[in-house]
């Protein structure tokens, strides 16, 4: 009987304890506001995330003592994907600050409240963060992919982040089932751009996803939500890790639906990735692509390297460039182009590192 493996987020931000004032505020919401349990849970989650980002900005001060610039940084670290999302967190901070005024914890004429109430406050944050919305952190990705019913869809979202891609997705479409070692939980493949043999040591969740992809017999259309007679389609078993479905091949008359050496087309891989991310996952879906997921993966690797070898501090540009050159073969000039992303998003990625086994 297959041993069931389950994934649990190890992200430390979920274990950040609320400080006494936020606990008091939460108690106030629960006991004195006419809120449904769903709304209360939503506000509670907002408070935990605010508290988490608050500790990134300052270890010694709380948000009620922050400047406008520091509150702006808190919201930027959350990487809100829309004005509505950013506005919801701004409103929670604003309501909390007003609570602190009533309780006498902060001055009643505090200018911060006036500033963050300005109409363009949220718009300015969204404008500044929009260029970074295409990047996804480890915690974001690994938690979101659990929403996908098909293991092959989950795997497709994870592999670029684990630096398996290649020009025109050749490294993905060419992966064979025999490339994966179940006992050692390793994926060994030839990188088409360099001819170099790569060996990916898989964490338990990734290994489980690969094994379930290999074993799958049926693909559930529309992520299992389809009610039509084509709600599921038989998978054509091939030598490859990513396999076409009988339904997909039936729409291609020149393809016989029994070709056991049939690769999925890179265009279909791309289409499936974008459809899954936009339709089912909360991953800033209008922005995340296979390319940006791959870039997110090497930014994440650089952040992990910084945690392990630089005491959790950022690398300088030269060390960052050397690291990327060694890890993914980028030239120094090519690596420099990503340093600003690494520098700007370092705390966000650092806070979302999972260190999965």
TrEMBL record:
InterPro entries listed in its UniProt record: DNA_brk_join_enz (IPR011010), MrpR_N_CB (IPR055009)
GO molecular function: DNA binding
Source taxon at top rank: Bacteria
Domain MrpR N-terminal core-binding: 20-101
Protein name: MrpR N-terminal core-binding domain-containing protein
Organism field: Clostridium botulinum B str. Osaka05
UniProt lineage: Bacteria, Bacillati, Bacillota, Clostridia, Eubacteriales
